[in-house]
Amino acid sequence: MNITILGAGAMGSLFGGLLAESGQTVTLLDINDTHLEAIRLQGLRLETDSGDRRVGGLIACRAEQATGQPDLLLVFTKAQHTDKALRSIASHIGEHTWVLTLQNGLGNAEALCRHVAPERVIIGMTTWPADMAGPGHIRSHGQGVVRISSLDGIECQASNQVAAVLEAAGLQCRADPQVWSSIWEKVAFNAALNSLCAVTGCTVGQLDAAPQGVPLARAIVLEVLSVAQAEGVTTDTQRCLDSVAHAIAHHRTHKPSMLQDVLAGRPTEIGAINGEVLARARQAGIAVPHTETLLGLLRLIEARSAAG
């Protein structure tokens, strides 16, 4: 399969490297020239539980340098950059191209459908961990899964084929018509941990440093999943709460991407996570005070950074 990764940060590079290692033809598109140049010169260095190695054969370039039309376009840009990124490669999305989003948050499918026919869109989520250790260097320790589905939730040959390709790369992927349950549970997980860490400056493990931390994370999970229920999505509340508790107990030094963005003075994905949850909660007439407060605090932090 000819695969293009749009957004070759930590997660996009991890997927691209593993897919290339499994025999797929992979192009990485990004705006980080230092990262792209390192990959072109030395290959992509992957540190995973399977070992530390370099993966060659990857095409790494900016979007405007891309050629051809892939069989699969895998979107890993941050949600706020989706429209601009897809406009930049409009000519590379062919009639035969399937477009898969594994991005954080909500609203990604709607963003893709502004550029791609809905029947060519595949939605999904992943729990794989990945960190950028340096230019051309990705670390990923621990296990994850990928769940995908056609946008309409009807089983189709394309989603099964894409799932098989990702599974063959070791990414533990399966097609799942109930993927929205997994997407909402990840949104609840991120709303609880990413936004709390971004506002407080805490690592994930430091959220239990005060007695208020863990109950606050739990309250956010319950708020988000109540909105999912109002939208008719069935979720496993206890599984999500257990995931949050496990992360706090075992990923103690981890700095979520939202905290890394705050520390670097970059805009965050808060709009696609807490912002989307709040918008949908208002439509359903549901109060989500903790989620809303954290959204407001992150917007203040972003405004401060933008003002210099």
Word description of this protein:
46% of the residues lie in helices and 17% in strands. It is α/β, with parallel strands linked by helices and 308 residues long. α7 packs antiparallel against α8. 46% of the residues are buried. An eight-stranded mixed sheet has the order 5-2-1-6-7-8-11-12. The protein is globular, with a radius of gyration of 19 Å. The protein has helices at 10-21, 33-42, 82-88, 108-113, 157-168, 179-200, 213-230, 237-250, 257-264, 271-284, 289-307; strands at 2-6, 25-29, 44-48, 51-55, 59-61, 72-75, 98-101, 121-126, 131-134, 137-140, 146-150, 173-175. It folds into two domains: 2-177, Rossmann fold (3-Layer(aba) Sandwich), CATH 3.40.50.720; 180-307, N-(1-d-carboxylethyl)-l-norvaline Dehydrogenase, domain 2, CATH 1.10.1040. It contains eleven helices and twelve strands. One of its GO terms (cellular component) is cytoplasm. It catalyses: (R)-pantoate + NADP(+) = 2-dehydropantoate + NADPH + H(+). This is 2-dehydropantoate 2-reductase. InterPro entries: 6-PGluconate_DH-like_C_sf (IPR008927), 6PGD_dom2 (IPR013328), ApbA (IPR003710), Ketopantoate_reductase (IPR050838), KPA_reductase (IPR013752), KPR_N (IPR013332), NAD(P)-bd_dom_sf (IPR036291). Pathway: Cofactor biosynthesis; (R)-pantothenate biosynthesis; (R)-pantoate from 3-methyl-2-oxobutanoate: step 2/2.
